[in-house]
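Margin note from the TA: students keep mixing up input and output lines. Inputs are the sequences; the output is the structure of the whole complex. Example:
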Amino acid sequence: MNSGSNKFEHYLTLKERISILSAGTKYDNCNQSSVCHAFGPDGRCIQLYKTLLSNNCSAECIFCPNRSQRSAVKTSLEPKEIAKVTWSLYRKNTIEGLFLSSGILGDPENTSYKQLEVVKLLRDEGFKGYIHVRIMPGSPKYLLAEISEHANKFGVNAETTSSLNYSQLCPNFDYKNDILKRLKWTQKIIDQKRKTNYMNRTIGANDTQFVVGALDETDKEIVTTMSDFMKKYGLRRPYFMSFDPVPNTPLENNYPSPKWKELRLYQLSYLLKDYNFNLHDFDPIFDEHNNVKNLDPKELIAQNKPEYFPIDINNATLNELLMIPGIGPITAKKIFYSQGIGCEADLKRLGISVTRARPYITLNGQSQTSLKSFMG
Amino acid sequence: MNEIDELYVREVLGAYLEFKIHHHSKLIDFAGFDGLNKSNEDEIIEYKQGKQYWNELRTDQLAKIIFNKNIDFTPYFYNDILQYISCIVRHKSYSQFELFHLIDECYGAGEVLFTPSSKLGNRYLRFMKEVKSELHRMCMFVRPEVYEKILVVEIKPTHKNEKHFCYWLSKKNPDLLVGIKHLSYSLLGNAQLLGFNETVIIANSNIIAELKNNKVSSLEAEEIWDVYYNSQFINSRRNKQYAKQMQPKYSSKFSKMAKKDRYKVEKSTHSVTLDFFCNNKGKF
């Protein structure tokens, strides 16, 4: 690995470095609404300070703005500096936690060690906030275990769906050893921590990130991999990052991935983890090139299963309710435990999108007769 | 359920059970800090006796006596029902008679509170959401002044959320005292650091003023926040609608910093000043 034509700036102030290293994470920010956020166990939205430890990366991932051969201002924050900034923002109540990622500082072990230093320092100083650490591919097991003692969430980015694709995208690492093995270790550590209640600290489930559209892999491959990861590694939270071509990288002339794809893939991930859908239910949502259609996937699935509908809302099981467009896990529970739904107004009060649900439900023996069913 | 919620809910459930047994008894304001002062001595005695009896039972035991219809008393609904009551009693327009009426209407099935069929039920479900949402926004957008030993903030919530917010901020910063200045009184969080038994106590505002010693430079935190906030956006990927949802207009009322962030949501993060041209700042 060589450092290429990096431009080193020696006299950057703390604020300038904060700005550069936070901006280095913005491409990972899957929703461009405000600063990076997560959702707490009480459903409350919490803001996070998201930063890189360093953007002086020695890896050559072809899509990444921090790749070693790309000419850019390279800088780092010391663990003490990150801890100081985190505390400062935390006390001011602007954030409730830290999301820590990094470029590879020489080798994965060194980088993970520095990450461990940050989280350890914060916890030793009594930091009670949420900490999410993005583990480096190839991090040693003992460091992963040590990070897990302090962080609430930790995971490694899979980026893509197969060894072949990964070797194209991130030529310095091996998919099977550096990624899949770490996903397995993470799952084992999480399972262990959950059994022992983890000192009453919240511990998040396994998570990973996929880059969508950087290579010519299909959306179906991504969804299949996601489903496999859920079964094999207990993956609960896949993140999707639409590919945006970064200047001075080998993929700078590629087309960006449409932003709606992120949304559709997120919808599919929720259908898999919260709605009890299976991979084979998803066939209608892919086009002839095996990419997702820009339409609501749950509605497409429902339209392709006319034999299941309309569902009698007052006699349906939880699983049946979850199949109806416009009804989510929370509203399904509300219907299920309610003392009977009398009219559409009752559904509205429960927060159900009646317009979406209407064609698929029967209420007191009555259902919407569409023009299609009238025509036979 | 935190200890503040427990306190609120237990009072309501205890008073409700007392009221069911003694129909003749006169209902007094059981929630709120100065509720008892408004009533006469006899009522207070009667109320306190009832409260003492019911206080011997745990909140979940009280809840099971009242909401006994649901055989599968799942934690999901149990917590929701207690949260519902805790939120309602904090709403500025709630009345205890109406709340008792609603609980009575359930006939022991608490989940009915979430699937109301009456106008009153709907209104109270809205009350619950309003209180919860205000507390969540406060947790997200209130920015305290940071001193060496204490965090101080002045708040003007629409509903009685000040005690909950003080409790939340205290739990977030267990090593610091928390001073909350409200319109009519002040609260001190993490009071156990000063030797008190409770986490949140009502305090004299002079005590909070005395505890404010060396101010930690909040300007620096504000500047760092601005640097961070501005660094996070990719203009071509902005989702303005979602951003507005995450930072609603009324979040501006909680702090100057939140007001500034909200302005950026509306407009943009770019600010081209003379300084930009003179010192070539903003190159990153």
